[in-house]
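Hi L.,

As promised, Receptor kinase:
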Amino acid sequence: MAITSFVSFLLSLLLILVQAKGRNVSTCPKSFSCGDFTDLSFPFSLSTQPDCGMMSMSGCDAKPYPRIQLVPGGEWYYALDMHNSSVWLRDPKLQTTLMQHNCQAFNKNFSLPNSHFMSFHMVNIHSFFKCISTSYNARNITHKKNNHFVGYNIYNGCEGFNIYYNLSKGADNLPTNCSLIRLPIHSSHGDLFDVLGPEFLAEWKLSDECNECHDGGGQCQTDKTNKFSCHKDAKTPTSTTDQRKETTGRNMVGLIVGTGSKICLIAAMYSYYRIFMHII
C-alpha cells in the first residue's frame, strides 16, 4: 500500500513539472498594465518581452510614471498620458537642465526615425539655430548673422554659441557655423528657458503592411538590419536565447521523466519481490 501511494505521488509530481514547463513557454500577452495605464497592447510591450512590440515600457511599479522607449536603443522618457495613437512624454534629463538654466540643454536634438512600418510625428517641437560665436572677427560675423536672422529672437547667455529662434516661423536656410536643433516648447513668452519645456506629444502611425500583419494575428517586428518581419507564431522562440531555454527545458523534463520511470520500475520490482517472498 505504501509503495502504491509513493508511486502515485511520484507520477503526480512529474505531471505538475511537465505542466509547469508548458507554462514557461514565452508568449506575447494580448494586453497588459503598466503604472496607471491599463489594457495596453501592440505596439507596446514590456521591456522584458521586447519581441512582442516596438515601444518598450519599464518601471511599471515606479512612481510617479512608468518609462517608455519609443525606438529600440533610444532615449527613455516618462509616459504621462496616452490617447489612441499618441503619448505625452517627459524628458527627465532636459527637465533638469532647463530648471538649472544649464546651456547643456541645447546639446539635445529631438528627432525620431521612421521605419518601414511605423512613422512618428512630434507635435510641440520647434526648430532653433545654434550658431557658434568666436572672438575672431566676432563683430563682423555677428552682424552677418543678425542680418540673416532679421525678426528672430536671440539668446546669447551661453558661452561659445548663440541661439536664434522665431516661434512663428519654421526652419530657414542654414547659415555658416550654425546647426539646426529641435526642442519642445510649452510657452511663447518669457526667457528662452521659460519658452522651452521638457514635455512633448509624440504621435505614431502604423503602415498598412504592419496593420495587415497585426490584424492577421501576427506581430510586427524588426530584425537586426531594421527590416520588417511579421511574426505569426507567438509561441515559437524568437531568438537564439529563447531556443536554448526551450531546448534546456525539454532536456530537463526528459531527464526527470526518465529518472522517474526508473524509480517506478525499481519500486514495482521491489513490490513484486515482497509479494513473492510472502508467498514463499
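Confidence is low (pLDDT under 50) at residues 13-26, 234-248.

Thanks again for sending the construct details.

K.
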